[in-house]
Write the structure tokens for this entry.
Amino acid sequence: MNREDIKTKTRNFMAKTFHGAEIADDQDIFALGFVNSLFAMQLVMFVENEFGVTVEDNDLDIDNFRSINAIANLVESKQS
């Protein structure tokens, strides 16, 4: 899956979860106040299920999930 597909799927997931809020690829979703502990778990599950990767304990760094770009970077590194 290419980078744009990863970002599009992630953007769509967030738009549904955040009731249509538009988030730029480099915006910090934690700083925006969108993330609580339940959503953080849902986001990890989304990444694993949608992209067929396993998020290991050492991947559970806030910086890997801070933005759409960061998530795309994580998925790309896990898929390679």
Remarks:
- The chain has one domain: 3-79.
- The two ends are 11 Å apart (CA to CA).
- The chain has a mean pLDDT of 95.
